[in-house]
Batch of 3 targets.
Target 1
Amino acid sequence: MLIAIVLVVGVCAGSKWALLGAPIGLLWRLRAATVACCVAVAVFGGWLGTHAWESARPRHLGEYRGWAELVADPAPFGQGLRATFEIEGERFDAWLYGGQRRKLADRQAGEFVWVQGRRSELTTGARWAAVRHVVGRFTPTVLADVLAGSALDQASNRVRRSLRGVAEATMASDDAALFSGLVIGDDARQRPEVIDAFRGSGLSHLTAVSGQNVAFVLAAALPLLRRLRPWWRWAATVALVAWFMALTRFEPSVLRAGVMAMLAATAFVRGTQASPVRLLALAIIALVTLDPLLVWSVGFWLSVGATAGVCVVGPWLRERVPGPPWLRLPMAVTLGAQIGVVLPSVLVFHRLPVVSLPANLLAVPAAGFVMLYGLPAGMVAAALPSALQQVIMLPAKWGTHWVSLVARLGFAVEPAPMWSAACWSIGLLAWFCWWHFRPHPARVPI
């Protein structure tokens, strides 16, 4: 984990600060070899960060006429639509209205569009756009033919379109959008009011595909994977995880979860056992090396923080929270995840909802069921008549509606940020008093 932390700090701070690690390491009485390794990793991280920001500058501007690839699903943006095109190896955001909006409203990532327009630099939000590798703005004057993408993109788009269609045919519009978010992280059609409710109740992580989704996909495929020989099982596991990552558009949270799953499968087939913290550190090193701009991704750090909290803080809290044994584990896991995301939540969203603990305890089991049941059920239902679709999707419909209800109720009772912070402080004080003054079992003299 030390190497991962040093690499991230190097990417953020730059290589010119790396030499400060030497006196700090010596003051902490680290071995000279460890100090030298940390300094080298920090210098490497600084070079990665500098190179990544330099590559985020546009190389080709001006008029363009030809094919452009959609690298993300067009998403609603106010009254319009934001589409991200890849043109000559660079990404540009385009804001579409009217007929252009209708032209691409149902298109998906991986498809090619014949365009004519002008590329220019972004005047606002350039830094945050660069985190998505977007280097400028594209203003189209013509949007013409659309071609399908690669075989993998076509397969992923068929699954996403089928799941979305089944959900819209069997659920209310808000629940259908939430179902797509829970199963494959497709939250583009969620209304702003629903997004605010999930953020305000501390449940927004449910619509971001994470380790829980990857674990459920592997669990659903486990009966088939068990029949394979070890190395064939490893290859099938890696391929399945890679396909699911493509299906969910390689979001930062699913990248973290997918790489950790691949590393765990590799350790298992080699006959070794790696701790979750070590897997997390290796995943951070691999992902930040491949894409240093992930260091500035809020979704990446929410995923990393929650995972670290669950793996490190959760087990520690399990024996230190009050309540019956059946409640301690979910409470410890939820509290650990909340502690892990305190810093990014407060810095970015300026709050840590106090209702997040009961809301997660109530919503996560139902959301987990929807994640596990929804993907295979939705794919099967897509090939059946509408009457059977209603029957097969009924459990997922009930589970999705329950999660939505918990989010809306939690958001309704969530106090203002100042009172929320006061409630967290009172809760922490109450726990400390309980822990300090609880009755200890009497020691039996030997």
Target 2
Amino acid sequence: MSEGSIKCDVAVIGGGIAGMIAALRAAQGNKRVLVFEKTADERYVCNSRLTGGIWHCCQMDIQSDPTVLAETIHTITGGQARRDLARVVAKDGIRVVRWMQSVGIRFIKGPYDYQSFMLSPPTITPQGRQWEGRGGDVMLRQFESELGKLGSKVLRGHAAKRLTRGGEAVNGFEGERADGSTFQVEAASVVIADGGFQANPGLTRGPITPAPEKVFQRNARTGMGDGMRMAQEVGAAISDLRGFYGHVLSKDAFHTDKLWPYAWLDFVLAAGIVVRTSGRRFADEGLGGVHLANEIALLDDPSDAIVIADQKIWDERGTFNLLPPNPRLPEGGGTMHVAATLKELAAKAGINAAALEEDVARYNAAVAAKATKSMVPGRSVHKFEAYPIAKAPFYAFPACAGITYTMGGIVIDSSCRVLDGAERPIAGLYAAGCATGGLEGGAMKGYVGGLVKSSVTGLRAGEHIVGQLND
């Protein structure tokens, strides 16, 4: 049963960071804004509430030269990133942080050079998801408080279902409440900010993986791609949908909550190798954990991946980073096979022993000769040093791809207006955050940064709506 129309100046679909920034920035411009969040809980769980909270651009400091940052975006995406989006994300990363500070969001400096801005209090915790009262949770509550002071609000349990049009312009949408009743929204501007499509197997099957059930949902499990679907229905262009941000986790994360979102195996595999139960390598480990997570997801059987290391790698790279797998992975119940020889290790881990010994010998010889690039598959060393696998005991970690958010989505311009197939803006319709595409992902699965992308596009959408965008 419908209860009539809800009227506002700006309707924002999704209450994560991109939606809340767009809403608050528009409200600061004297617009009456309503945020429509499909989850009914007071502290609705979304990726923004679970975030590690580190603002960076391509794992570089957002205070770096914007020209350098923009070129780095193009390099890591193989030139596929839209130049207008790369330019504004590189330029406005620091500006959006300063704006967030002006509305009460607190940051601290992280332990590494590129982590000049990390949400406070830190969300990154030793075991499992401990987000209440921490960075992302505090941030969203602060945004909502500021929104309320300006006469706007968040409506929980309100899911958008279909965009509506008046002539050529989008003028609202139809939706459904958590209790099953329907509603209609009338608004001069609609912002789609409901995140990626990572939790929708119907959409991830193909561009992300042939077997979605074997890719671990390292996220809030609410990103279903509804906004992308609705935008397509009114003629929006959709980017290349390949590529996601995520990490390589213990396969035991599927049944042990202590093993996600941390600890990653990224730095262990980047020093050693990853094989299938056939004993053979299948990807370039030197490109790091995000790349390997994508490559594992693309296997015909994404559950068939095992990280191989030796004692030196486990001692040095296994203890690197904020929450390293050594010792947190075995402490959290993750499977770790240890053996004095590769043959014994293969027997414990269910790997073809002869093939594993052969691949390790080939790999070690290439490392010694500094010829890893000529291997098949090649092993790059420009990002991570290749360690020989030589010091017993040897380690095997059954692994899985953990997906955090998808990188492809709705095509937008630098003002965050949704574009159609002819690159024309669809009047009244904006998109921000991980619902959008054209910056990250593609054939290279290039990772820029979900927080900088979401916050910058949210800010720019709000500013364009109120006519305060300067470029």
Target 3
Amino acid sequence: MTSVDRQTIRILHVVGGMNRGGIETWLMHVLRHIDRDRFQIDFVVHTEKPCPYDGEVRALGSKIIPCLDPSKPWLYARNFKRILREYGPYDMVHSHVHHFSGYVLWLAKQAGIGVRIAQSHNDTSSVQAKAGWYRRLYLALTEWWVDRYATVGLGVSYKAAASLFGSAWSTDPRRQILYYGIDLTPFQSPVNSVAIRTELGLPADAFAIGHVGRFIEQKNHLFLLEIVAEVAKREPKMRLLLIGDGSLRPEIEQKVIQLGLTDRIIFAGVRPDVPQLMLGAMDVFLLPSFHEGLPLVLLEAQAAGLPCIFSDVITEEVDIVKPLVRRMSLSRSASDWAEAVLAARGDTSAISQSDALGVLEKSSFSIEMSVKELTKVYEANLPSC
């Protein structure tokens, strides 16, 4: 065993901010489970605002380092290179900011970082197809930078990989799939459904539809509301539990008022206890997103044994517990989606939660498997002496 094999490997991850989103939640799972004596992980973030995971990140021995002005490349470059000097030396830079990763890794190359990882977490191809000329120029340039400066490319799904690395990514030995893993431990413990529903103001006999996601265009909240409005016509005890926050929340709240659904919808905000809410407060999980990479919340919903109704644009790799998943086209009407939601509630042939959890435990989507595969990537690319 060489000295390189034994030394601590220092890795700088680049994210927008350590919020409770899918990327950040997976990174927290990784940080909790990886060998922190072997791998020292710090985080560059693009905000000075405190984020929900910051405290735990620091408690686990990692740093949160703001690098501001990503919209001003010249200022960002100066900030990023200063961070590498002040907090380094780092052996690897691992970037999670999609196309902007190209610029980040170009700067890392200039600073002499030998191992530069771009990870694609989303399938933005449908959005890119509608881009104007200025945006297309930015995409072309950053994709060229990713191709040139990312020594390793990771995609959380086949669609996510193609979105950032191109349709021929699988022929490039530098590119591979690295699936998300989730911590399944919270889904193994019983919960007090009555207490959870009481805390949320959710009637004990309500038919509760759940959704977890930021209030952004990608998540398609307006169509989600149209669906639940149709469900409400057929099921007076329907309630919708919305977990998350974001820039479009005021617009969504206004739409709720317009639809006359104020007493049917619970805005629960950002929550640290999503597994418990899925187990104790939800009957069906609904995700009509316009696009996703590999939605971590769908893995969690299946671990909770929830029937899942979601858009058919989402990558098929997420169909893990087959009896629980149903895909729907976004071209179908809200009424059709509502019928599917109600049918899922009445399906007594679905798998039990304990059996669903067992399927997840044996899959590639446990955090133990995810950390094992990520560790392999890091060790296979260890910088030489």
